[in-house]
Amino acid sequence: MHKGAILVLSGPSGAGKSTIINAASDEIGEYYFSISTTTRDPRMGEQDGVDYFFVSKEEFEEDIKAGNFLEYAQVHGNYYGTSLKPVNKALEQGKLVIFDIDIQGHRLVRAKMDDITTSAFITPPTLKELEARLRARCTDDEEVILRRISNAKEEIRAVGEYDFTIINDTVEEAAQKFIIVAKAARLKQSREDEEKFIQRWLG
């Protein structure tokens, strides 16, 4: 039985998901931030095993065949996925498992663990603001920025699939909303827990 809970965060690249998590980290209790495995090249300053697990395309596809991923998807021409082992361990320890994954990943997690999953879509207030943030961080070339903007236009259409929407206008306000969502996620009972409660209640 899982004692923990899952909180899925999605949103356009540049929405500020990592910044919000860091700002709220002291207020949301014990959690495990799920580290994705990817075939993309590391960005400047990123560390293997801290930011991502960086692997080759061949290694990733072997793990797909072995059924080692909770979810995986191909985004911007690269694979991203979530390994099952550390997620299950964290859930058994009663932790809140936080995912920063795309829309495809959210759908796959919902399909497999819907009863313990809560989700939030994080976005800047406007597309124009998103573009300004992408350009300000100076990590991507023009082609990548334009691709991210194009993807964001599609991603926003899935906002209704999420339990909550967090508008990241200011980090402080967004972090406070995120804390409320994280607390709500911990209150969600698994179907197994619900059935046990019903049986106890009925006597």
General description of the model:
The chain has one domain (5-202): Rossmann fold. It is 44% helix and 21% strand. β5 and β6 form a beta hairpin. The chain has helices spanning 17-24, 57-65, 84-92, 103-113, 127-136, 142-155, 171-187, 191-202, and strands spanning 5-10, 31-33, 37-38, 53-54, 69-75, 78-83, 96-100, 117-123, 164-167. It has 203 residues and is of the alpha/beta class. The two termini are 22 Å apart. The strands form 2 sheets. The protein has a 5-stranded parallel beta sheet, sandwiched between helices. The protein has a 4-stranded mixed beta sheet with strand order 4-3-6-5.
Name the features.
203 residues; alpha/beta; Rossmann fold; five-stranded parallel beta sheet; four-stranded mixed beta sheet; 8 helices; 9 strands; 44% helix; globular
Brief overview, please?
The chain has 203 residues and is α/β, with parallel strands linked by helices. It has 8 helices and 9 strands.
Summarize the helices and strands and which ones pair or pack.
Layout (H helix, E strand, L loop, with lengths): L4 E6 L6 H8 L6 E3 L3 E2 L14 E2 L2 H9 L3 E7 L2 E6 H9 L3 E5 L2 H11 L3 E7 L3 H10 L5 H14 L8 E4 L3 H17 L3 H12 L1
Parallel strand pairs: 1-7, 1-8, 2-7, 3-4, 8-9
Antiparallel strand pairs: 3-6, 5-6
